[in-house]
Design goal:
Blueprint: H1 3-13, E1 16-25, E2 34-43, H2 45-48, H3 52-57, E3 64-67, E4 80-90, E5 99-107, H4 119-128, E6 137-148, H5 179-192, E7 196-201, E8 207-216, H6 219-239, E9 245-248, E10 263-268, H7 278-289, H8 293-296, E11 322-324, E12 331-333, H9 335-340, E13 345-347, H10 356-368, H11 373-376, H12 379-382
Parallel strand pairs: 1-5, 11-12
Antiparallel strand pairs: 1-2, 3-4, 4-5, 6-8, 6-9, 6-10, 7-8, 10-13, 12-13
């Protein structure tokens, strides 16, 4: 063998195999239509010591593809969809071989343009249009319901209803249904490096919430989508023990006098967080939202009218209201924020099934007057009959 051949042989022998699981959205929704597939990659000894983010920066996760006809994303002869890595994290489930979770965006087959359902690319166009160095921070409060396979919430009897709401919120003990799964999800998100900041039992039995943030810009959508993916994978593992369960992100999982599920969105910019003039920036942003109801509500969830009834700590979806310390208004400014004179505000309108990319981009665009032509071009697609003509509500 030549010296060069031997060097090549030893270089191959020195490579380290890892698993990269590519994760992407296929367009139907951003909570259950989350797809993934895995491949083996080979790293040299130096590369093997790098973090997932460092490997991403070095371009170590190559462009890949999948069959778009099988996900209802493509028709015709050429159904290939390209996927490009945009973020990478330690994999929280696979342990025997180093595995990395790779978040990817969908592109047309030639890789030139995002697919029509690539909402991350749309959101990116809004955040990239910021010329004020706003540093938008988001904190999302994801409410959801743990259910049996047939849809019955955890802790509910097979027939009839449980005791009325009251003892379940932030509960402990026998009425905190599903805490073992909640804690397992919390731990997996932290192991992955997601910015999950807390969790608690919610008002309806079987209903819980976790919070993601503070996250900056597009990171908000990334971490929320992956936190939802973590739940899907976690429930796969539970299923191996014969407990077939699901996580319900519908805005009104049980009709009647039961709380719905929201995605309350806490938001601030660098200007709002400034002790000198922060409250003025907050007030200005909130007042802008009075005029953009027709631009924002389409991105708040598919059936959010079932939740925003004025009951159960909600406002009307069509009338914009705000106040300090209020929980029945569209927007709440916390008492602590009002006392300090700077900080953030909470948009209480979004529903639990909202696309976090479109939601965060819409709030940023509307409250900070950021141009968003690609985002607003999607409004007809997300408009539902119950929304009516919201443009008449603009003041």
């Amino acid at each position: 063998y030549s010296f060069c051949t031997l060097l090549r042989f030893f270089d191959i022998m020195a490579t380290n195999p890892i698993i990269a699981e590519y994760i992407w959205l296929s367009g139907a929704d951003t909570h259950h239509d989350i797809r993934s597939k895995a491949r083996t990659l080979y790293l040299n000894d130096e590369e093997f010591q790098l973090s997932p983010a460092e490997l991403l920066a070095k371009g170590k996760f190559p462009e890949w593809n999948f069959d778009g006809s099988s996900t209802n994303q493509a028709k015709g002869l050429n159904t290939e969809i390209a996927i490009k890595a945009v973020a990478a994290y330690p994999h929280p489930f696979e342990k025997n071989v180093r595995t990395i979770a790779v978040l990817a965006e969908c592109y047309l087959a030639d890789g030139s343009e995002p697919t029509a359902d690539n909402t991350r690319a749309v959101a990116r166009s809004v955040f990239d249009a910021d010329t004020e160095n706003s540093e938008p921070w988001f904190g999302l409060e994801q409410e959801y319901v743990l259910t049996h396979k047939e849809g019955r919430p955890l802790g509910w009897p097979e027939r009839g209803f449980p005791y009325a709401q009251g003892p379940y919120y932030c509960s402990n003990g026998p009425v905190a249904y599903g805490r073992n799964l909640v804690v397992a999800h919390y731990e997996k998100c932290i192991q992955m490096g997601l910015k999950i900041s807390g969790t608690n039992a919610e008002v309806m039995p079987g209903q819980w919430e976790y919070q993601v943030g503070p996250c900056t810009g597009i990171e908000c959508g990334d971490h929320m989508v992956l936190s939802r993916w973590v739940y899907l994978r976690l429930l796969e593992d539970v299923g191996t023990f014969g407990l077939e369960m699901d996580v319900n992100f519908e805005v009104k999982p049980v009709k009647g006098d039961w709380n719905g599920s929201g995605l309350h969105t806490n938001f601030s910019t660098r200007q709002m967080r400034d002790p000198n003039g922060g409250m003025a920036a907050i007030t200005e942003a909130v007042k802008r939202l009075e005029n953009t109801v027709h631009l924002d509500v389409p991105f708040h969830g598919q059936n959010n009218n079932e939740r925003l009834t004025g009951l159960h700590e909600t406002s009307s979806y069509s009338d914009f209201t705000w106040g300090v310390g209020t929980r029945h208004t569209s927007v709440r400014i916390g008492n602590d924020v009002a006392a300090k004179g700077y900080g953030y505000f909470e948009d209480r309108r979004p529903g639990s099934d909202a696309d976090p990319y479109l939601l965060s981009a819409s709030l940023f665009s509307s409250s900070c007057a950021i141009p968003a032509p690609k985002l607003h071009a999607l409004i007809p697609k997300y408009t539902r009959a119950w929304m009516g003509d919201l443009s008449k509500k603009a003041q």
